[in-house]
Amino acid sequence: MIITDLDNTLLDENYRFEEAKKTLKRLKEQGIPLIIATSKTLGETLHFQKLLDINHPFVVENGGAGYIPRAFLLDRGKEPFFEGEFYEIPLGVPFEDLLDFMEEFSRKYGVKFSYLHSLPLEEVVALTGLPPHLARLAARREWDVPFLPENEDVIPSLEEEAKRRGLRVQKGGIFYHLTGNHSKSSALKQVLKASGLDGHLIIALGDSPNDLEMLEMADLPVLVSATPETSRKMKERIPHLRTYEEKAARGWSRAVEEILKEIEGGEKWQTYIKPE
Fold this sequence. Notes:
Elements: E1 2-4, H1 21-29, E2 34-37, H2 42-52, E3 58-60, E4 65-69, E5 81-82, E6 86-90, H3 95-109, E7 113-115, H4 121-128, H5 132-138, E8 144-149, H6 155-164, E9 167-171, E10 176-180, H7 184-194, E11 203-206, H8 212-216, E12 220-223, H9 228-237, E13 242-243, H10 248-264
Parallel strand pairs: 1-2, 1-11, 2-3, 11-12, 12-13
Antiparallel strand pairs: 3-4, 4-6, 5-6, 7-8, 8-10, 9-10
């Protein structure tokens, strides 16, 4: 199966995936599941699931929740279903509780933060490049508070305080994110188990340290849009990481095509089992 981040991985800076369409068609024809694991919201992810023409399990808001379509759910008796279609696995701390922590920290240390959900729509569009309808969806958070600090120097103190409270701070492409003590990988493990997909060969693709734990759980981890610095740091944790400097969909497509070609070429299975 393929597990993938979206921003700067499958999607380019304009949130398009044209350069990966041929590969995506191949995956669909071969019945290879495409599992999205993203920092995006539920609304955004459903939008891209529709554009990609897939109906597979997915993870949103950096592991805050996972969603499994009825067709994949092993225990069909489970309820409730989201909009009659997806079974939800909530894993995160509710948005309101996360925001309370941020505001408490702000008062205690006399620092200010800008929050994605409270920025004017035009500013969100300018910062993210999202069209207005997606910018609105991006601001509707349930398990994650994206923010920008007034001063980057406050981040270590924020990380330390968050850790004491069972929370975590992660750096994304544009925003920092405050979440519960979960990750894409922790959510993926539950989603894959509940959908009967655990045990399959995993090809995982991401673009940043935010994807590190997700890539660690893969048999074939891939970093696209790779910079020398990011590659070096992530290879310290994942020596067998494959890196591609090509941006987003172009690098994504090249990586997937090369891996599929190797597998179909009869390479030994052990080549694709991650080292212990």
